[in-house]
Structures are given as structure tokens and as C-alpha cells.
Amino acid sequence: MPLGPRLIVADQVAGHIRVVDLRDGRTTARLDGRHPAEHAGFLALPHDRTACVDDRAGELLILDPYGPDSGRPLVERRIPVAVPAEHLAADPTGRLIAVTTGLGRNWSAWSDQLTAVDLADVRGAGAVRVRTRAGEPGVTVTGPAEDPMVVLRHREPGELTAYRHSALMAAAPSCPPAEPVSTLPLGDDDGHGDAYDPLTGRVFAAAGSGVHRSCPDGDVLLRGTTLPWAAGGRDGGRGYYLRLDAAHRMLWSCVRGGPGAPESWPDWTNDAWWHHLDTGGTGRLDLGPGLVFRLAVAADHVAFSRVHPDGDELVLVSTGGRTPAVSARLPLPPMAGAPRRGGTPWDGVQRRAVAASPGGSLIAVSRGGHGEVHVFDAATARQTALVTVPTRLDEGGLLALMEPGDGAYHDPVGR
Asked: Which domain of life is it from (predicted)?
């Protein structure tokens, strides 16, 4: 029987990973005692592989979700990396990877370690650690396949710093400091969100003033024009996340506006922001008030989960027509530990994770604290499955959804 969609459900708090065949709900593999880094997410790799970082073990895990169907192990390789993992990215071939470190469960920046990984290095550990700059840097791996650059996006002061991946791999032992080959000031100290377009070589960094664009030219990062958040007759707010829809050649974010206080989160406004990489067209669509953060890219839809005291919903935006449009708003069952009015939306509360595959129409949304994942078909706007796991999925868990040969690796940044 041909292979079908696989859903990876990870509970980073309880330490559990499960692979589910969405055609029949069968669990095909499981791992216990593994705690994937929620912020770094899953990184799609060629040949239907995916990667994540075990934040407790300090290991990059290369997973083969279809392996157990053919007698291969789920974990194809384990590589030591610095933690807590903040962001994770690969070059377009999926061979060269970079992992940055962030705050973890700490209140201030303390780690400056960057790990460079070469999956072709089978004689050594396959990874080298260096020191860069303490913070919460984003990362992309850009440029020619023979010698790409690792580009870090920093805050306070906001800047991009670039390093040759080959130079990082050649660094001496004992975590030496690494000097960038190029530095590009951003002018914003509030960067949050990164994307890379392998076709054009452009790097994108989200910040308060808009989406900064740059492109490597030899050892130099060239500055491009900044894309404004204002679009489609709507303005205000800023995006905190960037995602590439490689098939439709579109860049996506969610623009948050309204009162700045975290306790006022039910009154935050949220717009889906999109930019067509080839035509230059840009637009915004109203998603509704509350908390909208990450998004997922399916074959002909982009999915957003919206949390609000008056009811949560999955918002589907169609991408198959000439202009993106909201195609469905599907109610989601409430979470017992959901954020409440007067409190913050991320301290001691439950959240939702959302996942999709660019090769199919299925959307998965978790129900934090309940051990449930609701699966919808964007093509019919109907729920098709309910996946339950033996752990609570506190903080929303972490999801990845894949179809065989879906080309998800064309977005080479962990999500």
C-alpha cells in the first residue's frame, strides 16, 4: 500500500514523541524520554526526513518518519549540539545545518553558542560549536551549496551577521569565538521571524518597521528594500513570524496590533500578511481578535489557530486563487487551561500548535492540556480525525505533518 500522511506529535514537557499514520490512526513509532525544543520546532529535510533538537539531551535528532514502515529506525542519527535550541535551519540540500541557542527557561540572555552541523561528516561528531553573541538569534543558511553562509539575526542592537559554514566547521575545539565575514545593521532592535528563499537567495527578517530583505554577494550581505507591514488598505501592528510557501512563491506572517500590554491580549488585532516573491504583490486579511501566533502551510491553504475567551477557531486562508482569501472559520473545542482575561497569554497557560504539509490538504491543531490533536481537511473544511496521545500536551505540544515527497524542505527553516 502506498505511504500516506504522517503526523508527528511531540510533548516537549512530558518527553514523548509519537508518529501516527493519519489514514487509520495507527501509531507507527514512538520515543520516550525525548524533549524536543518547542521554539526551534521541526526542520523538514530532503528524502522525507525531519529534524528536531532534544533540549534535555543536547542532541540534534534526524528522524525518518517513514522508516518504521520499512523496518528502519525512527531515529536515523543523533548529533551533539548546544542547547537550549532557539532556531534551526538547513541549506537547501539539507546537508548543512545550524542551531542557535536562546534563553530556555531563563529570564535573560546567557548563551552565545552556535552549532554548525555537516551531515556528511560520518567520521567525527558531525558538529562544531563556536561562540557568537548572547541573545535569541534567528538563523538561515544561505548561498551556494558548495560553501553557504550561516546568517544570524540579532536583537539589541539589531543586525545580521554572516559566517561561512565551512569556517565554522573548521573551528578549533573548546568553543572559540567566531568572527563574522559580514555584518549588516538592521536599524530595528526588535527582530522576530526569519525566512529564506532558495531560488533568489534572499534572506528575510521580521521587525517592527517591516520585513528587512538582504542577499549575500560573495562575503558581503547586501541590503534590500524593507517590505512594510501596511498593505491592502490595512496598517498598524507588526509581524512576529515569517513562513515561506515555496510552491506559491509567497511569504506569510501574522501582523499583531492593538494594545501593547500582554494582559490586553483578547483585544489584540490579527491580520494574515502575505507578499508574493515574484510579482511583489502584498496584502492583509483580518483574522479576528485574540492570540494568533504561528501558522502552517498546506497545498492550497495557510492555516492560523486563533485563541480567544469567546471561543477558539482554526482560520483557513485559501491560496489557490488569484488573491488569498479567508475560506473557512472552524470552531475548536476549548482548553481547560486556556489564557484568561486579565492574564498573559503565555505564562502558565495552555496553547495550540498547528501543522500542515505543502503536499496535502490536512491541517492538524493541538488542544493543549488534553492530549488531543484535531485533524481537518482544508479542501472540505471538515474535521477528519481526532488523534489522542497518552500525555497532556501541556503548552500545546509540537506538531509536524508530512506527505511523501511533499517538498517541505524547500522552506529550509525550522518551524
From this structure: Bacteria
pTM (two decimals): 0.97
Q: Output the nine-digit C-alpha cell for 294.
A: 504561528
Yes or no: say if 214 and 203 are a contact pair by the CB < 8 Å rule.
yes
Which residues are CB-contacts of 86 (< 8 A; sequence separation ≥ 6)?
37, 39, 40, 100, 101, 102, 103, 136, 137, 138
Alpha-carbon distance of 147 to 142, in angstroms, equals 9
**Torsion angle in degrees (nearest 10) through CA of 51, 31, 339, 154:** -30
101 occurs within a structural domain:
no
Domain that holds residue 272: 6-81+89-94+148-159+186-410
In sign, the C-alpha dihedral spanning 91, 94, 96, 97 is: positive
Closest CA to 78 of 95, 94, 58, 93: 58
Per-position DSSP letters for 35-62, written without gaps between them: -B-TTT--EEETTTEEEEEETTTTEEEE
- Asked whether 330 and 363 are in contact (CB, 8 A), the reply is no
CA dist 286 → 196, 229, 269, 313, 325 (Å): 25, 13, 8, 14, 10
Tens-digit pLDDT profile for residues 238-294? 999 999 999 999 999 999 999 999 999 999 999 999 999 999 999 999 999 999 988
Question: Which residues does residue 239 pair with via DSSP β-bridges, in sequence order?
Answer: 255
Residue 398 sits in a domain of what CATH number? Answer: 2.130.10.10
CA nearest to 404, candidates 69, 51, 92: 69
**Amino acid residing at 17:** I
Give the separation between CA 336 and CA 122, rounded to whole angstroms: 47
CB contact set of 288 (below 8 Å; sequence gap of 6+): 270, 306, 308, 313, 315, 329
Alpha-carbon torsion angle 79, 71, 92, 321, nearest 10: -130
